Amino acid sequence: MLTPDVFFPLLERFARILDDCGVRYHLTGGLVAVHYAEPRLTQDADLVVDPVQLQAHLDRFLEAIHQLGCLADAATIREAVSRKRMFQVVDPQEALKIDFYPRELVPGELDRSIVIDLTADLQFPIVSRPDLIASKLVWISKGSHKSRRDVKLLMRGANEDDEAVARACVDQLGLTDLLEDVLAEPDEIDA
């Protein structure tokens, strides 16, 4: 597990690649949960990318990551993009992994991205708090236990507007009962 700041130089390099290719993207997952909620360690960075734009510029994207010296199999990435499935790119020098998701878990999430300062020199689009809550619930529904704590903390820190938008997104995804179950869970296991 790593602290979020170790990913910033690699994210900056990928931001340049995606910007040069004209592909919309935003950061999601554990790194953004740290921004909205509380510090914690993470094992990777997660980027949602526009699948249509990435498909249109895939050769350019693959050449750019090859020039960076990243470990990535072009055939695997091509298949993943065509099927809108996650693929990984590893920076062997830093031993860091980025998971790319060529799809939106929450419809329209890329349209609602917000831009933050990751560092003094790096502005980066991230998933909105409501969309992160909704996407974390999707992961919970698929078996992720880490995301349960994130959802509780994200909801506690949400203002009225963000909570209302999150609840609307969650309802559209059919996950309202799961949200209520997660929010009703005790914070700590009683011994």
Please describe what this structure looks like.
The chain has 191 residues and is of the alpha+beta class. 49% of the residues lie in helices and 16% in strands. It folds into two domains: 4-127, Beta Polymerase, domain 2, CATH 3.30.460; 130-184, no CATH class. The protein contains nine helices and six strands. It has a four-stranded mixed beta sheet. Strands 5-6 form a two-stranded antiparallel ribbon. Strand 3 (87-91) and strand 4 form a beta hairpin. Helix 6 (129-141) runs parallel beside helix 8 (160-172).
Question: What's this, in brief?
Answer:
With 191 residues, the chain is α+β, with helices and mostly antiparallel strands.
What are its keywords?
9 helices, 4-stranded mixed sheet, alpha+beta, single chain, Beta Polymerase, domain 2
Instruction: Compute the number of strand runs.
Output: 6
Most strands sheet: 4 strands, mixed
Arithmetic mean pLDDT = 91
The gross shape turns out to be globular
Strand percentage, roughly?
A: 15-25%
Structure classification: alpha+beta
- Please tell me the CATH architecture of the largest domain by its name: 2-Layer Sandwich
Count the domains: 2
Integer-rounded radius of gyration: 17 Å
Please report the first level of CATH classification, the CATH class of the largest domain: Alpha Beta
